[in-house]
Design a protein that fits this description.
Elements (H helix, E strand, L loop, with lengths): L2 H19 L8 H20 L8 H11 L1 E3 H8 L3 H13 L3 E5 L7 E5 L1 H21 L5 H22 L6 H9 L13
Antiparallel strand pairs: 1-3, 2-3
Helix pairs in contact: 2-6, 3-6, 4-5, 7-8
Amino acid sequence: MAAGEQAVAVAVDTPRRASKRLRPPGAKSVGWALMQAARLHRGRIGDRLADLDLFAGQEQVVQALAAAGTMTMGDLAATLRVRPPTASKTITRLAAMGVVERRTEAGDGRVVRVRLTEAGLAKAKAIEGIWDDVEAEMLDGFDGKERRRLRKLLRRTARNLAEAAGLDAHESDGEAEDDLDGLDAGDSSRDMD
């Protein structure tokens, strides 16, 4: 092999060897893996929500309201584990789109109740299908036991982080976790809480 050919062969081989050695900064970190999975999940959901003229994150508000019916802004923020101004900003955007409506409490104008409009209820149904599809993609190859275990571990992780951040951890999460432990492997992997 001529000297020029040898230099080209080394130059071509070097990136391959380097890429095998390069690891993400947090390759052994649970947090890093969680962030990567969450980023990819959010992107996948976001791509699908665009068809509904929604952004990632707004679907969680729609789903919470679909499940609860009417909620106060404080209850909504606690359910989503966000600060009240964040929930309020999202509700303002959804109200402008005709997805939700707000009403102040008759006896106390400081209390605002939020509920889905008919358009919001239609979006909630479509969102459920999107979440089911993306969850199936995400958990492809997981058996029922692995799905339940992962869900339980992620809930515990969320509670720990919510507590550390001083956010209200929803008390129903622990109860739902206990209820889910009894599911058979053939049951749906989605939470209904």
